[in-house]
Amino acid sequence: xxxxxxxxxxxxxxxxxxxxxxxxxxxxxxxxxxxxxxxxxxxxxxxxxxxxxxxxxxxxxxxxxxxxxxxxxxxxxxxxxxxxxxxxxxxxxxxxxxxxxxxxxxxxxxxxxxxxxxxxxxxxxxxxxxxxxxxxxxxxxxxxxxxxxxxxxxxxxxxxxxxxxxxxxxxxxxxxxxxxxxxxxxxxxxxxxxxxxxxxxx
Length: 202
Description:
By secondary structure, the chain is an alpha+beta fold. Helix content is 16%, strand content 23%.
């Protein structure tokens, strides 16, 4: 085969368009006054679908500006990468220090997840200090969110979900932590709820 006979992906790796896209990551929607979009293109090129939220848990209803997560200026961090110690941008920012809290609550509010009577694996109260006396950092908070997603997966995988939410079920063939991206976390009155996107949902 001659080089001029090859079919080339004009937007693929090595193309000017690909490098322009990589060099100019999209900003977090809220920083430009936009709503959270239904889909987001991750830094690895995957198209991810937004985890559905109740109306009261949309950023427009947040109590104060949220905490954003990015890697190399690309908004959105993969859960598995965080658990493998990938470092987020501005990792040492102390994200809770100005609130004066000792503890706070994180809730995933995962679509279709039905907690059992004794516990809710999608919700956790945690210390805003690490190692006892160090204020929680952006990196630490990203890990808290990633660990809760992993723990919820371990608890809920292959279990039934509420009718109509089957596409969001945790299983090997559908939702897995390695497909989940954390874009930000937002505080609503008394709980933090992260903005999550899941790849390969279509």
